[in-house]
Specification:
This protein has 220 residues and is mainly alpha-helical. Helices cover 60% and strands 11% of the residues. The protein has one domain: yeast vps74-n-term truncation variant domain like (yeast vps74-n-term truncation variant fold, Orthogonal Bundle), CATH 1.10.3630.10. The strands form 2 sheets. The chain has a two-stranded antiparallel sheet with strand order 1-2. Strands 3-4 form a two-stranded antiparallel sheet. Helix 6 packs across helix 7 and helix 7 packs parallel to helix 10. The chain is globular and about 55 Å long.
Length: 220
């Protein structure tokens, strides 16, 4: 089964160009997705505003297990700190895994005949189609039937990916529905707290990164 982390990456990539359309902040979203995946699996919780390990037993997914071990080896930290630490060097690992599994194909080329160009195009579109169908049905109903779909909606909302994921829908109502899904009563209190914390952490980290980039551009 495709993980929440992989689903978020697939949704953020353009099927025609094979390029990341998240605005450069996909890795932060993937860090949030790892935290939520591990929470849904009963490995993490958010208590007293800290991410804590409930169970260090591996899940059998190398990427998730590696990040779980790293979180377990560290002291409890605020969700944003965990998201940012977990996100480091995550994107290429997820891409490589999807290529190895045959979900994406990696094409090398050159832009203007000079600059290296890497494209990741759909090879097996079923995983992305399933994620879009679940998310689309949830947006239509403004509620999710399961924690994974609600978590995915929260991440898409946090990263402002509604135009990328649903180019044929009006952005305003879609964003409103995504927020309603994230805020809805679709899971137990512990999982909801983790989703709310991870969503806030991703939004905060992205906002901070945008501000830093804007400051750097203004001073150059």
């Amino acid at each position: 089964m495709t993980t929440l982390v992989e689903e978020l990456l697939l949704l953020a990539y353009d099927d025609a160009t094979g390029r990341d359309r998240s605005g450069g902040y996909l890795e932060l979203g993937l860090g949030g997705a790892v935290v939520l995946e591990l929470t849904i699996a009963g490995r993490l919780e958010v208590a007293d505003k800290k991410v804590r390990v409930l169970d260090g037993e591996p899940l059998g997914d190398p990427l998730l297990d590696d990040r779980l071990a790293a979180i377990a080896a560290d002291r409890p930290r605020a969700p944003r700190a965990v998201v940012e630490r977990t996100a480091k060097k995550l994107k290429p690992l997820v891409l490589d895994g999807l290529v190895q599994d045959g979900v994406l194909r990696h094409e090398h080329g050159k832009a203007l005949g000079i600059f290296p160009l890497n494209r990741y195009l759909p090879n097996d579109p079923a995983a992305e189609a399933d994620a879009k169908a679940r998310l689309g049905a949830a947006v239509d109903a403004a509620r999710a039937e399961d924690a994974r779909t609600a978590a995915l909606a929260a991440l898409v909302y946090a990263m402002k990916l509604e135009r990328v994921v649903f180019p044929d829908r009006k952005a305003g109502p879609t964003r409103k529905a995504l927020k309603a899904i994230a805020d809805g009563s679709w899971a137990g209190d512990a999982t909801r707290k983790a989703v709310e914390a991870a969503q806030a952490a991703v939004m905060s980290a992205v906002t901070a990164a945008v501000a830093v980039n804007a400051s750097s551009s203004g001073s150059s």
